[in-house]
Specification:
By secondary structure, the chain is of the alpha+beta class. The chain is built from one helix and eight strands; from the N terminus they run H-E-E-E-E-E-E-E-E.
Length: about 130
Amino acid sequence: MGKRTPLEILVFLILLAFFLPLLTAADPIVYEDGGRRDPFVPLLGPGGLKAQKMSGDIQMEGIIYDPPAGSMVLINGDFYKQGQSVLGATVISILKDRVVLLQDDEEKILWIREEILPKGEQKNVQNKLPDKAR
């Protein structure tokens, strides 16, 4: 590769000036959710859902639902399986959208997303549990 002539440099700069705006003027990428949650928005924290808390500082942060291998729930940063205890509560069952805990001889339900329940129904969820969750 030899030394470039001024004409070659000028042609390169003209071509660069012409094609550079075409490369940088692409349309912005817009996520079309199709009615689903945006996967790029965090589940918890700013812009995301709020983790559901219950008395005793138990905060459910997520569910790994895998019945054949044993589902797990993420509470206060640690994973728990059915039958394990966390802060005085025992994990009774782990379902796709909720976890049932037994605390002080009372069943408590933590939903992964509060907005899946119609307003006012959160108080009456005990009566709507499937038999396998009790």
